[in-house]
Design brief:
- This protein is mainly alpha-helical.
- The chain has one domain: TspO/MBR protein (Ferritin, Up-down Bundle).
- The protein is built from 6 helices and no strands.
- Helix 1 runs parallel beside helix 3.
């Protein structure tokens, strides 16, 4: 791997992990307080699981973005695909802000619908360019689907 490609790979992974760090700032401050006082469904996973899962998902997202970026920013399809990718990454951060920062499961529920649709658009556009990159995002949309159901359940229970 050429140094420039390695730099691209590292930068895409770091950008995605940074999104996780930004979200964690809002999450961590609420976990022991507000969130612990919420009624949660029986299928709610233990709090410790979220960190490793999200770290892995952000890593996979970074690799996927790198694979698409590596196809050439001069291609319109790559620009569009990476625009969807950036949009979903921003929406990902905003979910944490809305749910944990603003303590709004209802608002976060609305937001996660837009996040899910943007992830789907990202997968579709990635698939048209380089299928392995799209497949790397499948665990992400599955986890966000679960998170959406969990979000909805918490909203209804509280």
């Amino acid at each position: 791997m050429k140094f420039s490609n390695l730099a691209k790979l590292i930068s895409t992974i770091l950008i995605c992990e940074l999104a996780g760090v930004i979200g964690a700032v809002f999450t961590t401050s609420s976990i022991g307080g507000w969130y612990s006082g919420l009624i949660k469904p029986d299928f709610s996973p233990p709090n410790w699981i979220f960190g490793p899962v999200w770290t892995t998902l952000y890593f996979l997202m970074g690799v996927a973005a790198y694979l698409i970026w590596n196809k050439g920013l001069n291609r319109k399809s790559v620009k569009i695909a990476l625009s969807f990718f950036i949009a979903q990454l921003i929406l990902n951060i905003f979910w944490s802000i809305i749910f944990f920062g603003l303590h709004s499961p209802g608002g976060a529920m609305i937001e996660i619908v837009f996040l899910w649709l943007t992830i789907l658009a990202t997968i579709i556009t990635f698939y048209k360019i380089f299928r392995p990159a799209a497949w790397l995002l499948v665990p992400y949309i599955l986890w966000v689907s679960f998170a959406g159901y969990l979000n909805y359940s918490i909203w209804i229970l509280n």
